[in-house]
Amino acid sequence: MENMMQALILLLAGFLVVFTVLILLIAIVTIYSKIIRVVQSAGEKKKEIRSAEKTENQEKNALRSVTRQEIEDDDGEIPGEIIAVIAAAVDAVYGEKPHRIKSVRKSREKRSSWAKAGALQNTRPF
Q: SS3 string of 102-123?
């Protein structure tokens, strides 16, 4: 009977240790995930602020690169808004590298740019 009591006490002590460690691990993982969420949200906020500042700078640079003279000399073929959008896209691609748009003209091809992009995507090698 005494061996049975010792076995029962040992069994209960083992269960107590195992479940205590499991609860401790759950607490550690929960706290760690909350810390990670806080750090990621802070990083995302910084990225949003930086991207907003970068977008503003890109828009300013795009508008600077397209002067009023270029828009007025356009002969009505391409509206000024389209030229500004093209300049912003070029600025987004090249980023901080120095770049300049010398001219903008309509393409002579019959296929739209969306059709070209689709054909390029579908024929790209693996």
A: CCCCCCCCCCCHHHHHHHHHHH
Whose structure tokens read 């795009």? 62
Half-sphere exposure of 24 (CA within 13 A, CB side): 6
CB 101 within 8 A of CB 65: yes
The pTM for the full model equals 0.37
Sign of the CA dihedral running 123, 82, 66, 102: positive
Map out the domains of the chain as residue ranges: 53-103
Tokens of 72: 């007025």
pLDDT in tens, 5-44: 999 999 999 999 999 999 999 999 999 999 998 888 888 8
116/121 Cα distance (integer angstroms)? 9
CA dist 123 to 72, 75, 102, 110, 114, Å?
40, 37, 31, 19, 14
